[in-house]
Amino acid sequence: MIERIVLDTEKHIFETPEKIAEKLKYFKDLSDSGLEKLSNEKIEEVQTDFNKFLNIHLTLFAETEPTRLFRITRNKFIYKENPYKLQKISDLMGPPAEFASLGRVNKKGESVFYCALDFNTAVWEMQPEVGEYITVSEWKIKEGQKLINHFIFHPEETNLSKESQNAHEAHLKEMGVIQEDYRKIFNEIQKFIAEEFMKPVDRNHNVNYLFSSIIGSRSLQSGKDANGFQMEAISYPSTRRDCKVTNIAIINSLVLDKLDLVSAKIMTVGEINYDLENKNREDLIMVSALQTESEKFDFENNRIYWNLKKELEDGIRIHQETENKKL
User: Fold this and answer.
1) Which of 107, 131, 187, 207 reaches 20 to 30 Å from 217, CA-CA?
2) Distances from the Cα of 311 to the Cαs of 14, 179, 190, in angstroms?
3) Strand 233-237 vs strand 147-151: parallel, antiparallel, or unpaired?
């Protein structure tokens, strides 16, 4: 099989659509059968092979200004001894590089800030367990800032705006992809990429993130180009909500430059309702009435100041309400 899609990048000479389709099917079959079945040596071989093959950037980017972003941190993964209160602002962000495992948009050792546009999507993505402490942080874009965001989209199965479709078509023309057979195969490549970002993955077998992680890493970890341009975020459909809503992954080192931390709230999960047939239900999780909040942060010293006075007042109020119900 062929090694790469583009034979000559300057002259826009490609392999034949038939040979590209054959190699694409090879990667799709590997993905569909489960990469966890392969040896570490074979995984390395596949990774190298895929990097050589996909020697082209199919990007659709724009400057975005997300108004609200939600992130759920499962406290027990930060502080195993005392997981109730996170102490640092950095605890609310992506993990340090040395603790970053392979993910949807990152290779192992690459720190990325994953978030969602609404609370329920964040819940679905993290799926905390009963009795667990979680910290819900809300963020917004800083005034005057924008994120240069790459949109992952599926040409057929997800909603695609007319503007996005026009941009995609213009990109194909710019590359010289004007013949119908080449247009079709490039759409198939785009579909494969989107489906890798959309496919459900058992986190116990996170090697199945391999193809999307390679593409995500290539976009986010390349740094600035000769013109100073840098992709800062990737948005992609949420598989856990039938691809109807969007997740965003941002370069972790840019988060505090681009986003304002609005609030953080500690919750105790009391009940879970991860109902696959009713993914839009509002009671995905039920949490305890007693919650600890913070809207005060010391960025210089990397500290979260929890509102202990309010926590005490709420505790007394809830206790009194409980006692009154017994009467």
Assistant:
1) 187
2) 63, 65, 50
3) parallel
